[in-house]
Amino acid sequence: MMMLRAIGLMLVLTMASVLPSQAAEADLRAAIAKFAAATGFSATEAVVRELAASGDPAVERPLSALADGNLYVRKADSQVFAGKEAGDTIELLDPLSGDKVADAAKTDLTKIKVNNGLRRTIRDALGTLTLRAKDASVRLAAATTMFKTPDAANIEPLDAAIAAETDPAVKTLFEQARAASILVSDKPEADKLAAVSVIAARGDREALSLLTSVEASSQGAVKDAATAAIRAINSTLALWDAGQNIWYGISLGSVLLLAAIGLAITFGVMGVINMAHGEMVMLGAYTTFVVQQVIRTSFPGLFDWSLVIALPLAFLVAALVGLAIERGIIRFLYGRPLETLLATWGVSLILQQAVRTIFGPTNQEVGNPSWMSGSFDVGQLAITWNRLWILVFALLVFGVLLYVMKRTSWGLQMRAVTANRRMAASMGIKTPWVDALTFALGSGIAGIAGVALSQIDNVSPNLGRGYIIDSFMVVVFGGVGNLWGTLVGAFSLGIVNKFLEPYAGAVLGKIVVLVLIILFIQKRPRGLFALKGRAVEA
Amino acid sequence: MRGSFAKITKIVSAGVVAAGLLASASARAADDTIKVGILHSLSGTMAISETTLKDVMLMLIEQQNAKGGLLGKKLEAVVVDPASNWPLFAEKARELISKDKVAAVFGCWTSVSRKSVLPVFSELDNILFYPVQYEGEESERNVFYTGAAPNQQAIPAVDYLMSADGGSVKRWVLEGTDYVYPRTTNKILEAYLKAKGVPAEDIMVNYTPFGFSDWQTEVSAIKKFGSAGKKTAVVSTVNGDANVPFYKELGNQGIKAEDIPVMAFSVGEEELAGLDTAPLVGHLAAWNYFESVDTPENKKFIDDWHKFIKNDKRTTNDPMEAHYIGFNMWVKAVEKAGTTDPDKVIDAMVGVSVPNLTGGYSTMMPNHHITKPVLIGEIQADGQFETVSQTPGLVMGDEWSDYLPDSKDLISDWRAPLSCGNFNVKTGKCGGKGTN
User: Fold this and answer.
1) Which among B178, B245, B282 has the least Cβ separation from residue A456?
2) At A82, phi and psi to the nearest 5?
3) Domain ranges of chain A
């Protein structure tokens, strides 16, 4: 019977790939029409199963539409359509062919509801139907689904698919899916043992998950093999876990570096305790939001470039605000750290409330461009694109800043003013302007950090609050006045934090890090890389 | 010694109350408006959530005035800004009651702000309407809780996940922000799950600080916990701002709702507004109201709101509905009592029944909690929720959880003759133990 069904399925598959027969199409349409009368998820599920049982790949379109919540019933005549949103109206498409039939207002349609259970059912059904799809990525997705939902009935179609498969990556996954299905079938023990070793070779969490359930449900040699495989996978995964912690630490470190690097200039080089630093980051993030807003309404094609466009603008906005703060407030307060602290704190509150008044108190949506979404795997390590780009970006900003400080005449003047103001002044350097531009530079850098942070955090008026303490921590820990210290400080704090987190939890982990820093500062009050020279005494 | 001291304080406070009443009576006689206090943070970290509630109160008051006011007088809103600063909440509450002579106060969001104003409301004998879902374990004479108690949100949500529709979840991650609401809710949930036969090794509890933004470790721990061959779900009491990076990380690490669904208690339409929800479709939330609920009352409410706020992109959410219910209940109770005197209104409140926005009626119960339907919704690509499950009837708020050893014998009934917020049915005495 099973054999027959599988052959039947294959026949249908081959036939369908040539031309869907008229009769089959009528049957499918009749089945799809049943969605209109199906009330409740279980009724809808029955229709989905019926469609899936037809084995016709043509059902992929209506089923995918249903899974995406795009299948509608027209109230007037209870006809079922796939829908595509176009502004306020919905384009009605034929569920099978995908051709446009008509337009309708949202109120004239009832959307067929789906829930997670239904989406799972549809995904499983599509898995079997798309095994022979033309697109390798679709076949890959099908294999992944079948691996996750092993079923003895899958073995036959998988065998056929393996025989026909040319792509080695897809083929391996097919074999693993077949092995998973063998483990839940009533095949002889030898087959199952072979299947266990195929899955064990995969070596990831999914394999572990599958083997754990196999271990629980079988006896004898299969159980022992599964236990051994689980032990082997666990020991390799433990290694990967350590690697993962390091990567997470580096990634957290890059965020800390970005947030702190502007402060390393304003506080580290100039010695201004700038409590409004976080708000410069926030302004950068809001600039990104405004840029994306303009792009969305006027130039939708440029969306993937939005961050690149936002970078110089964010730098400018934050630098100008920084310049205004320096000229308007801070220059009157040099050498009075307590007053500077209070004044900049006040400025930070003013900026927050100003943003709240202009943009409203709620979070603003800043989208991720496509090249910053999703993740890729290195071995058992999932690396998310946004974190990787932020790391690259942080190092880039650091490099540029280092160049400016060490290799340009402006950088030389900055360092000269920091080292000995009076001597610099008598050499003809306009120290007030160097101060103003240095502060603007630090603020501008904070602004571009905001562009990056808008990708991983909330864009709300409170954005800066979360980073100000961490930024000061990094700068003080790394050694005030030393850019390299900020770099090393950021990464070491990130890594220590992420190594503590799995054991101590996020709350306790943070406390432990703070205590460690306090102890460290007791021992080395000037941080990791203490600045030497006259500036220290000044 | 102790007794006499208590007596003295009682007399003094009675005197204060009497003086206050006299003063307020004369103040009320002097003008023909009724003042309503609005105690929501308009600046600081909580402004993100609370500003909307201030606006919805202003809208409701404006609508009531358009209908001719209350007891023939106009209502007047008195807005103060406690700036997300918990002690300031108590100061501002005192200012509203003593200086502005308000008839009732609508306000607070976090539990800690509510705890900070409680003594003020009982001392000065005024009324607070608290509109947010909370951890329970409290029932005060002067407070009306229009948000959900744990049994009106957390328990039905977990029941749904355990059901076949919800995916027959066997393994649980309880992920929360580190403060009183998640900790108490998770304590209740843990006890509930264990009572349902879930073994301890299938429950993972984890807390993160307020405003947490680096979720990499937590999300990969969830992934790891979920790969033990049993259906896993996350129950999230993560608060406010921390949600956006949490969901972004879930999306980026490819955790799909079909595999490991996340059920959230603090994520509403407002929180989703700052997010691209396409990767989150199917993750869940449990509330007593969704903007997507299709009833004529809700449609009118949303239209009014868009008109009032002059922005038809602004969403509505559950705490807004709670204020809608609470305000209408207060109006009805004042009409019933014929006065705005807090003592009389408090007595008149119990039993008052008003329409909610989900097509039914909500009633104030003797424990000062209300009846509500519980809705489970899935996140959609447009940032709205779609109801996938709804309790068949209304659920009555249970202030003292039946699943915590310290509170399972306690009940609350503010009607005479009992008039007690923590009556112990075992000992037959008023004054039992709560967990916080």
Assistant:
1) B245
2) -85, 145
3) 2-129, 140-218, 241-537
B274: nearest CB among A120, A363, A465: A363
Determine contact, residues A130/A56, Cβ cutoff 8 Å: no
The closest of A330, A353, A366 to A464, measured between CA atoms, is A353
> Would the pLDDT of B436 be above 80?
no
Give the minimum alpha-carbon distance from B33 to chain A in angstroms, rounded to a whole number.
30
CATH number of A241-537: 1.10.3470
Break chain B into its structural domains and give their ranges.
2-149+294-371, 152-287
Fold matches, B2-149+294-371 and B152-287: yes
- Contact (CB<8Å) B216/A252: yes
Tell me, rounded to whole angstroms, the distance of Cα A209 from its chain centroid.
24
Window 104-133 of A, Cβ < 8 Å to B: 113, 115-117, 119-120, 123
Of the residues A71, A111, A116, the best mutation for testing chain B's interface (the one with the most B CB atoms within 10 Å of its CB) is A116
Query: Is pLDDT of A532 > 80?
Result: no
Question: What are A148's two structure tokens?
Answer: 């996750």
Q: Would you place residue A170 in the very low, low, confident or very high pLDDT band (cuts 50, 70, 90)? A: confident
Q: Which of B47, B214, B271 sits opposite A361 (nearest CB)?
A: B47
Name the residue among B90, B94, B110, B114 with its Cα closest to residue B102.
B94
Checking if the pLDDT of A248 tops 90, the result is yes
Query: What is the distance in angstroms between the Cα of B150 and the nearest Cα belonging to chain A?
Result: 24
Considering the four listed CATH numbers 3.40.50.2300, 3.40.50.720, 3.30.830.10, 1.20.1050.10, the one that applies to the domain covering B2-149+294-371 is: 3.40.50.2300
* Any A CB within 8 A of B244 CB: yes
Distance of residue A316 Cα from the nearest chain B Cα, in angstroms: 25
Query: Do B114 and B147 meet the contact criterion of CB atoms below 8 Å apart?
Result: no
Give the model confidence (pLDDT) of A443-499 as tens digits. Answer: 999 999 999 999 988 888 888 888 998 999 999 999 887 889 999 999 999 999 999
User: ipTM score of the complex?
Assistant: 0.81
pTM: 0.83
CATH code of B152-287, in short, is: 3.40.50.2300
**CB of A269 closer than 8 Å to CB of A510:** no
Considering chain A, what percentage of its residues have pLDDT values greater than 70? 94
- The string of DSSP codes covering A294-314 is HHHHH-GGGGGGHHHHHHHHH
| CA closest to A511 among chain B residues | B209
**Is A119 in contact with B258 (Cβ distance < 8 A)?**
yes
Distance of CA A53 to the CA centre of its chain: 37
**pLDDT tens for residues B133-183?**
999 999 999 999 999 999 999 999 999 999 988 889 999 999 999 988 899
> What digits encode the pLDDT tens for the residues B45-79?
788 889 999 999 999 999 999 999 999 999 999 99
Cβ–Cβ gap B217/A248 under 8 Å: yes
